[in-house]
């Protein structure tokens, strides 16, 4: 758009001078009418057009010269001549430094997620200055597609070993078993083969882990777990080393396979960070970039693949490629990036080889040896071969000396056949070139420019050769030193041997530090977790080398090329995807047809039944005796119908069986990921905390429909499973018909801590026999909780899981609830008597006692919210957590039932979830003098509840107040207000009736004009007979 304002003429006439006015045109109109002037104008226009075309073609030629990886489009004589002229001018000027500076620096990748790390916005850093209680180590889950023996296994084994040294605990999961199982077993890391990961067969509670690391896209099947609630918020690192998916995604776009492409895009978006081993892969995968790409250089892949290539090599590659055994082959390699100065670097190296070529031509000692030069480039382009031929012709190389071989798959063959490898790229790399690692592993002398990234790992004349990039003469001297009398010098062979040992364990420290630093940036560790060591404190001995020895002990170790294996996996995955899509479409069409027909049949019968019923009602309406009750009865009937309006549903067999039981245990859940851990028995009933993700075909309770507060995602996350208590207690008589009520967390089932069949029967027998009376039965105890391995007391455990502020928050909430002064002790005592407490919301108690507990807990939550809402809602930070936490209140509410049961004088009984054996905890004899019965009595709580209900009638509705939204608002004034309203309505109707009667009496009546007197019957007969005659 800026070109419109640059002063370029927009009309053709402006090219010949300023435009003429109307008068001037009329004055010279006879000149333009002449044939000579018209001919002159046409010729000038034609000449201008020819000049424009010539200039455009010249610009095209120049532009092609600087295209990445290609110099000319075709092999025409004019194009070759243009390249030849450029090459001759290049080598004649000799301004080497100026040319090197013109290489270009286009290939630079800057991860956007680094900005998040610097700002500390979406991710939280470890805070070693904050108090961590250190009750457990941070847990990491490492997920593989298959336990193979490959470079990624070697990388993750080495990184895992270092992370264990820093203080992590790691669990390995794999979709398929393999020979790598023994490696992890030797490392003493537990292994679980999960086979599949879907909503039916998932057996892993991923919330037990602080972070998840997924290796390679072959573990795609595991992502079905992480894409579901409640596992979507777990930090996840996806390590991607293959480029096959990037190239295959282009085919998806071309073929219109958008659904398959979006399926992979969901995986990229779900990952917190996608880690690549080099800076080229993020650019190749730019289609999937969601701002979460990150690079951690360092991988044993290049060294391992080179070792495997040499071990599997059987034929002489030099002979197969057409070279003689005595030939000296120099391979010129370059960066994996394509940039505008790539051809210039190769040309400079070729010019430096001219003296060496002359020596071979004049060498009489080894006349059969020839100098051969292989130029390797990553992209398969014919244009670059033409450019190399042009440069070779300009430098007067004999025909056949220089050969161009392209393609990444041919790099191993080129490096293995070469005697010397020259890195011909002067680009400032962001990481050490991978092709140099391969060359060093092949034990070839390498010669490279002294750019900072190469100089960091290559010591000149120790494990390689370095030359200043602005001094071409040094490169010539190095070549003459490496190749002497047509052979590789002994010094060069020793340097190559040192380079091999260096390449085998190159950048181990960078990889370990990179992953440790990344975990520090993305993990949000709870306060009970001991933070791992800082990156600077990692022992140096674990960062010296890859753990090759763990893989060397595997018998019959085989290695499959990662690129070929990735292509095979994608082919298999596409086949499964197409098959599933075909079955899904067929099933959907058949089910849709059946569904529509069934709806039509049902609607037809319904309409017939309604018509028949309406007809019968109309016929019997006049015959039936209609009773008119009082207005009070009509009002009560209307209220009852309104109350039962939402309960008119057909109850299934499970609900009918549940009605006759003394106990119903509710299982709160959120999302499809928790479905496998929910029970199917009639003793249990699910409670969906969200309108989405409910189990189909089950009579689960829809918590948001019973408590509208849970439609607010902020409070649904804030309360956690405690929100199910409020939803069930709200108008409980419409839902719960049992004498006892219980709750069990799905996470208890995942930890194998749920009630067995034996324990269920024992609990039901104790309830029916009233063995312990009004008691709290619980079966998940604090002593066996993974967060409390040291067996701390109640308040110490509560402080540990709430950032050390549990006692302070609890006492502050109690003071606000009861209106106490700040100097009064408001923390209820929870003594250490050797017994245990309930955790994870897994308990049962009488329904009446449950309502009393909810009455207390509603006021407690309201007081807690009053002191924390402003800060948490605005910033996301909570005093009960070390970092931003959506579930701020959930952990302190998890242990609240213990405080209420202990101080309200309820018996507390622990039920062994396996055997069903029961043991009473905190017996009354030990509680004497420590219970705050007056504060937790029903009369006190009831009066407080009524006071809050009365206050809600007069409170400003715009003020933030949580309590009215957590359940029923009831007090005596509600009945009085309803009775008063009914009385006023009755008086209003009575007054209107009296007014109507008064108006009828007072209105004016018209006087009667006359009266008709009916004659006697005999007179009528005589009159009729007279008329007849």
Describe this structure in words.
The protein has about 1050 residues and is an alpha/beta fold. The chain is about 50% helix and about 10% strand. It is built from 42 helices and 23 strands. The strands form four sheets. An eight-stranded mixed sheet has the order 18-17-16-19-21-20-22-23. Strand 6, helix 12 (about 280-285) and strand 7 form a beta-alpha-beta unit. Helix 4 (about 75-95) crosses helix 17 (about 380-395), helix 19 (about 435-440) crosses helix 22 and helix 34 packs across helix 35 (about 845-875). The longest helix is centred in the middle third of the chain and has 60 residues, at about 560-620. The protein is elongated. The N and C termini lie far apart (about 115 Å). Mean pLDDT is about 80; it is low at about 1-45, about 60-105, about 120-125, about 585-590 and about 645-650.
Brief summary of the model shown:
Helices cover 48% and strands 10% of the residues. With 1029 residues, it is an alpha/beta fold.
């Amino acid at each position: 758009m800026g070109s419109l304002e640059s002063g370029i003429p927009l009309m053709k006439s402006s090219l010949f001078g300023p435009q003429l006015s109307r008068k001037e045109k009329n004055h010279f109109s006879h000149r333009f009418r002449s044939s000579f002037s018209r001919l002159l104008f046409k010729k000038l226009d034609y000449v201008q057009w020819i000049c424009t075309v010539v200039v455009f073609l010249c610009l095209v030629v120049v532009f092609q010269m600087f295209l990445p990886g290609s110099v000319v489009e075709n092999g025409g004589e004019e194009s070759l001549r243009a390249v030849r002229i450029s090459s001759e001018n290049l080598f004649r000027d000799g301004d080497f430094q100026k040319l090197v500076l013109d290489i270009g620096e286009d290939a630079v990748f800057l991860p956007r997620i680094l900005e998040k790390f610097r700002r500390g916005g979406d991710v939280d850093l470890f805070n070693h200055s904050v108090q961590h209680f250190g009750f457990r180590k941070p847990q990491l889950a490492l997920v593989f597609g298959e336990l193979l023996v490959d470079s990624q296994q070697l990388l993750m084994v080495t990184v895992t070993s270092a992370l264990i040294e820093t203080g992590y605990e790691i669990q390995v999961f794999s979709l398929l078993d393999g020979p790598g199982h023994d490696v992890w077993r030797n490392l003493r890391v537990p292994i679980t083969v999960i086979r599949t990961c879907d909503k039916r067969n998932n057996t892993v509670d991923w919330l037990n882990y602080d972070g998840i690391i997924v290796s390679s896209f072959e573990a795609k099947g595991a992502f079905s777990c992480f894409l579901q609630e409640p596992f979507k918020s777990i930090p996840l690192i996806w390590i991607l080393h293959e480029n096959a998916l990037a190239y295959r995604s282009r085919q998806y776009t071309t073929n219109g396979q958008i659904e398959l492409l979006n399926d992979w895009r969901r995986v990229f978006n779900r990952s917190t960070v996608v880690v690549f081993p080099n800076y080229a892969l993020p650019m190749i995968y730019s289609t999937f970039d969601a701002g979460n790409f990150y690079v951690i250089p360092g991988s044993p892949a290049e060294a391992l693949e080179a070792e495997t290539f040499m071990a599997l090599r059987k034929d002489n590659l030099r002979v197969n490629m057409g070279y003689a055994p005595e030939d000296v082959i120099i391979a010129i390699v370059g960066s994996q990036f394509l940039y505008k100065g790539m051809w210039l670097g190769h040309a400079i190296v070729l010019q430096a080889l001219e003296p060496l070529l002359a020596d071979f031509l004049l060498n009489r000692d080894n006349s059969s040896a020839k100098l051969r030069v292989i130029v390797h480039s990553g992209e398969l382009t014919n244009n670059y071969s033409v450019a190399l031929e042009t440069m070779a012709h300009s430098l007067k190389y004999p025909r056949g000396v220089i050969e161009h071989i392209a393609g990444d798959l041919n790099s191993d063959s080129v490096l293995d056949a070469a005697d010397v490898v020259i890195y011909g790229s002067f680009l400032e790399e962001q990481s050490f070139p991978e092709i140099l690692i391969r060359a060093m592993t092949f034990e070839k002398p390498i010669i490279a420019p002294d750019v900072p990234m190469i100089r960091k790992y290559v010591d000149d004349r120790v494990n390689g050769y370095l030359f200043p990039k602005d001094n071409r003469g040094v490169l010539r001297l190095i070549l003459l030193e490496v190749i002497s009398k047509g052979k590789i010098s002994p010094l060069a062979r020793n340097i190559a041997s040192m380079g091999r040992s260096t390449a085998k364990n190159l950048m181990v420290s960078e990889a370990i530090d990179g992953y440790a630093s990344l975990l520090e940036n993305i993990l949000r560790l709870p306060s009970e977790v001991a933070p791992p060591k800082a990156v600077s404190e990692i022992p140096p001995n674990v960062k010296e080398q890859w753990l090759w020895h763990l893989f060397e002990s595997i018998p019959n170790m085989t290695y499959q090329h990662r690129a070929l294996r990735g292509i095979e996996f994608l082919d298999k995955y596409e086949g499964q995807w197409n098959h599933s899509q075909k079955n899904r479409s067929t099933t959907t069409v058949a089910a849709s047809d059946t569904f529509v027909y069934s709806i039509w049949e049902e609607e037809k019968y319904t309409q017939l039944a309604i018509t028949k019923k309406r007809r019968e009602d109309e016929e019997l309406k006049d015959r039936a005796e209609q009773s008119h009750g009082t207005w009070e009865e009509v009002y009560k009937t209307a209220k009852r119908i309104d109350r039962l309006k939402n309960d008119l549903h057909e109850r299934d067999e499970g609900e009918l069986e549940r009605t006759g039981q003394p106990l119903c245990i509710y299982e709160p859940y959120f999302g499809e990921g928790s479905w496998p851990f929910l029970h199917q028995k009639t003793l249990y009933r699910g409670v969906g905390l969200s309108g989405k993700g409910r189990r189909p075909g089950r009579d689960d309770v829809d918590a948001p429909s019973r408590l509208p507060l849970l439609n607010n995602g902020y409070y649904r996350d804030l309360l956690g499973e405690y929100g199910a208590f409020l939803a069930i207690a709200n108008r409980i008589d419409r839902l719960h018909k049992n004498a006892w009520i219980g709750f069990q967390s799905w996470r208890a089932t995942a930890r194998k801590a749920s009630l067995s069949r034996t324990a269920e029967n024992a609990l039901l027998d104790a309830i029916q026999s009233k063995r312990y009376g009004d008691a709290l039965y619980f079966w998940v105890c604090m002593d066996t909780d993974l967060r409390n391995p040291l067996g701390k007391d109640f308040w110490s455990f509560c402080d540990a899981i709430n950032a050390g502020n549990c006692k302070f928050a609890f006492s502050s909430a109690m003071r606000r609830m009861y209106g106490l002064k700040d100097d009064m002790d408001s923390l209820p005592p929870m003594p250490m008597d050797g017994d245990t407490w309930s955790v994870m919301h897994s308990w049962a108690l009488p329904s009446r006692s449950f309502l009393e507990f909810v009455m207390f807990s509603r006021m407690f939550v309201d007081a807690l919210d009053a002191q924390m809402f402003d800060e948490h809602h605005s910033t996301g930070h909570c005093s009960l957590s070390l970092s931003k936490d959506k579930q701020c209140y959930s952990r302190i509410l998890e242990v609240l039932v213990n405080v209420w049961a202990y101080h309200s004088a309820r018996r507390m009984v622990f039920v062994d979830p396996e055997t069903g054996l029961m043991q009473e905890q905190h017996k009354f004899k030990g509680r004497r003098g420590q219970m705050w019965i007056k504060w937790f009595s029903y009369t006190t709580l009831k009066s407080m509840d009524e006071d809050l209900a009365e206050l809600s009638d007069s409170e400003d509705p715009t003020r933030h107040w949580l309590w009215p939204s957590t359940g029923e608002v009831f007090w005596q004034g509600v009945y009085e207000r309803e009775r008063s309203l009914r009385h006023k309505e009755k008086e209003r109707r009575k007054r209107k009736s009296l007014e109507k009667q008064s108006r009828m009496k007072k209105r004016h009546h018209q006087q009667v004009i006359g009266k008709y007197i009916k004659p006697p019957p005999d007179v009528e007969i005589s009159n009729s007979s007279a008329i007849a005659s």
